[in-house]
Amino acid sequence: MWRIVAGILWAVAFLQAQTFQDLLLPQARHIAGIVVDSEGRPIADAHIDHSNDRGRTHQSDTSGGFELDTRAPMLVVRKQGYRSEMVHTQDAKDMRVTLQQAGEKRIFPTCSKDGSYVGIDGSGALFQFLRVPDVKATPRGRDVDYSARGYYIKTKSGTKGIRHGSGPMWDFGMPSDQDVWRSVSYEEIAYDFGNLTIIDARGQLPNRLQWRYLGMFGESASYSGVDETTAKVLDKFLDGACIKPVASK
Asked: Fewer CB atoms < 10 Å away: N or C end of the chain?
């Protein structure tokens, strides 16, 4: 069974490595912009993500302004309490990004005590998922700094599934640059979780295949490159995600 989750991890890594350089713009573009709310007021400390800037973070300043050089074809602007916005960079020099308030505070659900769940024990994992009859789980695999397992279904085109991992070096809490950059449609929901943000993002690729990412810093569950029928089954599994209840002392 561990071969299946290892295969899922390898296939995703191979796809990302194969397309990363092809997705970048031929030359870096200088982007300057401002982030505002629906009433035109500047928003400070909004994150400008997926810039391919070697780990450097970009944020709007106190006047809502930001400035960067990037070869990324798309950026996502995020701020807790607001709906994220994806923006194209290829033809842009000056940007005005309007973030809509998310409305009521979104809290990620806590698992009930009487549900039948599957997840990862240890490695700091917090996500659990309601069992779905058509989705099978592999045993947990471990490396030096993370644990991982797969949740998969068998389709006409082979085994398709979700990779779920947890550990200090597993994930930085956002979908992959490659999935975001390749998307022709994109949507995202952010949930408050203490000092962290849980992101539930999904998109459609030019070939109509779909991807989805559910994660926070240190843990994620995701799939990529599946058809609509398969995505519906895997989405049902991810829609049943919840956070392990805190054990009472």
From this structure: C
